[in-house]
Structures are given as C-alpha cells and as structure tokens.
Write a structure and sequence with these properties.
By secondary structure, the chain is mainly α. It contains 14 helices and four strands. Helix 4 packs antiparallel against helix 5. The radius of gyration is 33 Å and the shape is extended. 29% of the residues are buried. Bound molecules: iron/sulfur cluster. Iron/sulfur cluster is lined by residues 48-51, 54-56, 66-67, 109-111, 119, 121. Iron/sulfur cluster (SF4) binds at residues 48-51, 54-56, 66-67, 109-111, 119, 121.
C-alpha cells in the first residue's frame, strides 16, 4: 500500500467534525459534534507534517504517539492506528472529547504556529477509538497470567479507571471503591453530556467489569487504610465546584449537571443546608417573636384597641379621625 500523502496542510484547510443540527441539539443533551466520516478523518490526518520533533507529543501529558496514528489514519490503517493510540492512553475516545487540546497537543502543533490551523488531533483520536469500538477492535482485558496479589483502588474517576485497567491487564485482582453510585467520577458527575455522553464512560466501566475488576460503589473509604491489601488512592477528584461567572451563576451548579445527565441526586450530593447552631436558633426564635408582637400591636392599633399593658383612658386615637378633636398637648399650667 502506497504511503499516504502527508504534509497536505497547505492544500487542505483545517476542518473539524460537523456540529449536529441546532434544532435537534436544542431538544436533547447529546454531544454537539457528530463523528467524522472516514474520508474526512483521513484527509484531516494527512495535514500532519510528521515533525521530527513533534511538539504535539511533547505537549501531551500522556506522550501520545500522535504523528504515528495520524499517519496510519491517513493511510486508512485504522486498526493499527487504534493500537498505537491505545498503547499510551487507556481512554482515547474520552481524551479526544474532553482534553483541552487547544492548550496541549493542538496548541503545540507546528502548523498551528505557522498559521495553517492545527491538525484536528482530538477529533481524529476520538474517531479512531469510536470506530474501534464499532468494529470490535477494543479487546476485553485478558491478563497474560493471574497474580496472587490484589489491589484496592480508592476512587473510580478517570485516574482510578485507568489504574484499574493497567493493574488488571498486568494480572492483579483489582477492587475499585467509590462513594458515588456510578463509576467515572468527574467524567460522570462533572462533565455535561454535550461534551461527553455517559454511555462512553459506562462502556469503559463494563469492559473493566468483564475483565474481572470488582466495583464497590456507594462506599466511602475514610482515613483508615483498607485491611490486608495494598491500596492505590486516586480519589483526589474535584468536589468543590468553581463558581461560574455570568447569568445564572448563583444557582447551585451541581444540580444543573446532574439534572442534565438525568440521574437522581444521591444523598451526599444534595445541597447542604446551613447547620443550625443553638445561637442561630435562639436568634430565629427571637426574630419570630418580635414579628408576632409587632403584627399584634398593628392589629390592635388598627381596631383602636389600646396595646397590651396601656392604662385605661390612654386609648390611642386614630390620628386621621381625631385630628380635629385631639386634645392638643398643653404644657402644665404654672398655677
Ligand atoms: S506537531 Fe502537528 S504537525 Fe507536528 S507531528 Fe504533531 S500533529 Fe503533526
């Protein structure tokens, strides 16, 4: 097979996958971008100039072998492209969707610096692995040999799932603990569907379960170490939301996202009510009493009744009705 014509960034303009139709998007929470078609993925991959020192790779936290899987995609050798991509990344289809490529690989791409517009690395990465899932190239986890040791992973976020994949593929018995009701951490509870569909993450979790990884969900692991087995802690996660700026920013954030993913808020994600202290309760009670007293006084006044405790004959008169007749205050006479 003839090698693909790479370095076509001069002739071929940059093109990202098409966005789904606005009206359709307005009625659902699904991803904004549709998938690349094969021809488009090949064409966009061929824009890569196969740098000797690929800055895309050095800007990638995983050190992904980007020029190679771009070249393989441009050549139509998608299965090999998937293998190269999966060799350094446990969830390439997730990275392709949510990585801030503009600040990483695509931001470092030399043809971006030359003003030709970067190679759409993220979109191609996503396309390769989505195709691999469709065509059954994503192999189940089958360790070469079973080891006696077992490892506990605390936290089923992206780090925990990747660690579980690596350790289980190496033959360890792996149990993943997480306090949420679903595995995925930030991928499930922190990123809205229009950027990452939850099925994409659950597909990865199912593969781990099929590979022998046990998940203990709704389980909060305290500071005490787990008994009898080495534990890998990956639960840092991001449980304090970053306050958004702009309209609606004062509404609780987490409820919106959770609603977007359509799942019920588990107890520990419910918005916390402010704790009532004895002092605040007393203040509240005093406030209530004061309000009640004022209401009562106003009502009595409205009915021309003298307030509680006022001596007989010191009735309050209505200023409006008794203006003419009201006795004027006279200074006591100097008799
Ligand atoms: S930096 Fe850009 S052009 Fe260079 S290898 Fe990476 S993707 Fe290709």
């Amino acid at each position: 097979m003839a090698p693909p014509r790479m370095l076509s960034f001069v002739a071929v303009p940059q093109e990202t996958p098409e966005k789904r139709d606005v009206d359709t998007r307005a009625r659902d929470f699904h991803e904004i971008y549709a998938d690349y078609i094969e021809a488009k993925a090949k064409e966009q991959s061929s824009r890569c100039s196969q740098c000797g020192v690929p800055f895309c790779q050095s800007h990638c936290p995983l050190g992904n072998n980007i020029p190679d899987w771009l070249m393989l995609t441009a050549a139509g050798r998608l299965e090999e492209a998937y293998e190269v991509s999966a060799a350094t990344s446990n969830m390439p289809e997730v990275c392709g969707r949510i990585c801030p490529q503009d600040r990483l690989c695509e931001g470092g791409c030399v043809i971006e610096q030359s003003g030709h517009g970067t190679v759409t690395i993220g979109a191609v990465e996503r396309y390769i692995t989505d195709t691999a899932w469709e065509r059954g190239w994503v192999a189940p986890i089958k360790p070469a040999r079973e080891l006696k040791q077992s490892v506990a992973i605390i936290g089923a976020g992206p780090a925990g799932l990747s660690a579980a994949d690596q350790l289980r593929s190496a033959g360890y018995k792996v149990t993943v603990y997480d306090r949420h009701d679903r595995a995925g951490g930030l991928l499930i509870y922190g990123i809205p569907n229009f950027k990452l569909e939850k099925e994409i993450v659950e597909r990865r979790t199912q593969r781990l379960i099929a590979g022998g990884v046990k998940f203990k969900l709704n389980t909060e692991i305290g500071p005490r170490p787990l008994p009898r087995r080495p534990a890998l802690e990956t639960r840092r996660g991001a449980h304090r939301h970053r306050r958004l700026q702009g309209q609606g920013a004062d509404r609780p954030r987490r409820r919106r996202q959770r609603r977007a993913s359509g799942a019920r808020l588990p107890h520990h994600l419910q918005p916390r009510r402010p704790r009532r202290t004895a002092r605040s309760l007393r203040q509240r009670a005093a406030q209530r009493c004061g309000q009640a007293r004022r209401r009562h006084r106003r009502r009595r006044h409205r009915h021309g009744l003298r307030p509680h405790g006022r001596a007989p004959g010191r009735e309050v008169r209505h200023p409006a009705s008794t203006a003419a007749t009201a006795p004027t205050c006279r200074a006591p006479s100097a008799k």
